[in-house]
Amino acid sequence: MSTPPDKGNTTMRNVPHSSLRFHAAEDDSPPGLGQHDVGEQSAPIGLTVRQVVELSGLSRSTIYEELRIGRLIARKLGRRTVILRGDFRSWLEGLPAMPARNTR
Fold first, then answer.
1. In what order do the strands lie in the sheet with 46-47?
2. Cα(17)–Cα(80) distance, rounded to whole angstroms?
């Protein structure tokens, strides 16, 4: 006969990935990267690849390529890939600026 686990001792194994939400305390992000969204007290600071694709307007394969070569940083939790908003923002800010065009 096995002993039931202590209810006060919850492990991450018992928490479904979809219910994990990481929240930030401050909101100093530009529109689209804000920590607070309309209708929510605070938005998750972890983004999925799909969310990064939607926010950046870039393709999924481009995002995975940036992850593969290490320019964009992600964390893994099981099969889930999580990109912190701060890492996403740093990556965007680190992209080369577009040169000004000469107009005559």
1. 46-47, 80-84, 75-77
2. 8
Predicted TM-score (pTM) of this structure: 0.57
What is the rounded CA–CA span in Å between residue 72 and residue 94? 10
Tokens 């394969």: give the residue: 61
Amino acid making up residue 103: T
Find all residues with CB under 8 Å of 23, minimum gap 6, and list them.
35, 42, 43, 44, 45
β-pairing, 75-77 vs 46-47, is: unpaired
pLDDT digits (tens, 9 = 90+) for 75-88: 998 999 999 999 99
Exposure class string for 70-93: b at 16+ Cβ within 10 A, else e? eebebeeeeeebbbbbebbeebee
pLDDT tens digits, one per residue of 12-58 = 444 444 444 444 444 444 445 554 444 445 777 899 999 999 999 99
